[in-house]
């Protein structure tokens, strides 16, 4: 783990040379691997510090990392070495402890190092990487340990405590498994001494200990030994051998010098220090928000899976299809990882002052521009405070001052609404779970804080909608301007989810009061395709949720809304539009239901009924002589169903005289439909639909299409 | 998303915020190689990679008559329902020329 | 990461990649990476007469930087979600320092 993320805690010199180069290559490779592993969400076990954890840090206060700044020097000019030096004595103790704990690991490698050391040039050649001299291993286990760690990584194995099976076999030999050494570990000195003893029988020692794999030279040597004779070399071969050996010696000397150079930095950090840093670095790469970087894919896949499941496709197929989500690795490790990350994240939240790119305390800094986060091509420094933002489009809500309604201003409001809606939706995803036994207090605090933050966001969103801007300051009203954009319409159902009932009522009131300035009320929008799309959008996004709201409203509110509607809008104009008719129908039918005592409200009293009748009569008289004009010219099938529905709603509440007026005015349309349905040219289902539409109206009058006498043609 | 700082005064602070205003709106994009696009903006990023819907591409081709050395300007139009545009070819992005 | 995330959902879908040298290749999207490099399978060059040497090629890897457009199957794109994803992308601090 000391080579985590390519961050070599041994701090090798960068003078180049073979070892350093190999290390760098390895680091690069490690980096790639880690990145990939993170990317694919696999290999969580790589980050399992628990396995390599030496328990030295158990004494540390881990739950509250408040003192980290003190411990690690905090600040941007971070000087780890000096701080560590100050506690050198303690470190030394820890180091000793560590050596003892890891003795067999360090010793094992040292022993092999010395073993190969005494074993002639041929083996040296096949084991190019070079291992520390026995003398060095003895004098500074710490140092040699660090070096062998790098070596171990190259050979595919971790350091002493690493859980992964070492793949030592990649070289020319295979180590016997560590367990072969048993529990009763000989001390380093003992091994050393034993090795020196066995060095006398040079060539046989390795042969007996390592059987699994042998290089060509070894096989040759073995054969020679079996034959009882030494290999016969020619003069040239010997000379070559010697030259080779000389160069090897030289290389080894260089390496040693370099190791000695870097060795003075060895042991600056204990394992717990390294683990601590590892954790900080991991915490930067893991987030508690799985949507942060992959929002589209995550949500899209989730939606598709749900869709497929509804269609009866077994979920496991779906799961394997979206393969990215599957994770291997044992659950325990993952769980612990999550816990630790949660702790770090919640800690970061508690200390919001740390807003740096890197968490303070991390050695080095994770590159700001990475593959995950490429450099943005356009970067303009943000202006500090929003006070200086240009006056014209200041988002200060809801200032009754001069509010311009240029298109980009309105678009800006809409995008701000989206910003808060997205933030609110994100907040809902992060809603704290209900308190568990014994944790009520902590959970209660979290819930309280969550509610507070949620409330703030909801209030900001509400302000951004500009519903409370007084009527008449600007025309059209800012809220209506928002609704005149298709994305403004689309956001309304999502907005309504976060509004309080009284806010919804305010929204509805404002909409009703300014209805005629909606672009969907303009007659010309019916002319082109785009206009029709806007109308459809309005009918699909804004009408349904408000319909839901009105269909639960008490009589008093319905009366109030209709009164406002009639008073503030030209009814003939509004009723010609599909949305306008939809709202009228909505109010009329709701009032009718409440008048009949349905719904969960008491039957309205006489005064209210009178009020309503007065309203109805006003509406009727305004629309009188215009009823047939509600039908759009060249009305095609099914497109006038909303008109029939409205006529039906009118008919239900009408007096006999009014019903008579209604029938007279739309008589032509009724006849037209009935006749058209009876002609043979029309498909049966279309004919049925037309009759159905007419019957909507006729049934409300107690009539039926079949009673309509068709005049002879 | 967890801190509100970036949301405060979520007005227009950098050029890309202007592009954001055009999300779900039709835009005009000028590209290298005498190409122009008009379409509805569905997504963009800091490189000005974009996804556009209902796109109309206009390519201006200048044919040179070899004999007279006369330049003939030819305009080719193509349509595409959904198009990813790589940002490195983008010269400018603007709302369509209507009011 | 928005478009990487986006393209991941299109794996297995037929797309047409148009390169900056006007070569257009239709094929099934096999994979995509953070650089928006693209792997295609069962490829077919749109203008085979102009590029006969591509006839024998059955699959290919396209470096992201040479892409001009990618034509996408519109039904496989959730535009509302995509717009939201673009909005979220902008809100993340420019430095990417999330927690």
From TrEMBL, chain A:
GO molecular function terms noted in the UniProt entry: RNA binding
Record carries keyword RNA-binding: yes
Domain mRNA decay factor PAT1: 4-224, 237-705
Family: Belongs to the PAT1 family.
Biased composition (Polar residues): 318-328
Subcellular location: Cytoplasm, P-body; Nucleus
Organism: Mortierella polycephala
Region entry Disordered, spans: 318-338, 380-407
Keywords: Coiled coil, Cytoplasm, Nucleus, RNA-binding
Protein name: mRNA decay factor PAT1 domain-containing protein
GO cellular component terms, semicolon-separated: nucleus; P-body
GO biological process, one term: deadenylation-dependent decapping of nuclear-transcribed mRNA
Coiled coil: 236-263
Automatic annotation (TrEMBL), chain B:
Pfam family, one: LSM
Signal peptide: none
GO cellular component terms, semicolon-separated: Lsm2-8 complex; spliceosomal complex; U4/U6 x U5 tri-snRNP complex; U6 snRNP
Primary location class: nucleus
GO biological process, one term: mRNA splicing, via spliceosome
Domain Sm per the UniProt entry, residue ranges: 14-99
Keywords: mRNA processing, mRNA splicing, Nucleus, Ribonucleoprotein, RNA-binding, Spliceosome
InterPro entries according to UniProt: Lsm3 (IPR034105), LSM_dom_sf (IPR010920), Sm (IPR047575), Sm-like_LSM3 (IPR040002), Sm_dom_euk/arc (IPR001163)
Subcellular location: Nucleus
GO molecular function: RNA binding
SUPFAM superfamilies according to UniProt: Sm-like ribonucleoproteins
Family note: Belongs to the snRNP Sm proteins family.
Function: Binds specifically to the 3'-terminal U-tract of U6 snRNA.
Matches recorded under PANTHER family: U6 SNRNA-ASSOCIATED SM-LIKE PROTEIN LSM3
Quaternary organization: LSm subunits form a heteromer with a doughnut shape.
Name of this protein: LSM complex subunit LSM3
Gene name tied to this protein: LSM3B
UniProtKB/TrEMBL annotation, chain C:
Positions of transmembrane segments: none
Origin: domain of life: Eukaryota
Keyword Nucleus (UniProt): yes
Residues of the Sm domain: 2-76
Single GO MF descriptor: RNA binding
GO biological process: mRNA splicing, via spliceosome
Keywords recorded for this protein, A-Z: mRNA processing, mRNA splicing, Nucleus, Ribonucleoprotein, RNA-binding, Spliceosome
Subcellular location: Nucleus
InterPro entries from the UniProt entry: LSM_dom_sf, Sm, Sm_dom_euk/arc, U6_snRNA_Lsm2
SUPFAM superfamilies: Sm-like ribonucleoproteins
Gene3D superfamilies per UniProt: 2.30.30.100
GO CC, one annotated term: P-body
Pfam families recorded: LSM (PF01423)
Keyword Aminoacyl-tRNA synthetase: no
PANTHER family reported for this sequence: SNRNP CORE PROTEIN FAMILY MEMBER, U6 SNRNA-ASSOCIATED SM-LIKE PROTEIN LSM2
Biological function: Component of LSm protein complexes, which are involved in RNA processing and may function in a chaperone-like manner.
Family to which the UniProt record says this protein belongs: Belongs to the snRNP Sm proteins family.
The protein's name: LSM complex subunit LSm2
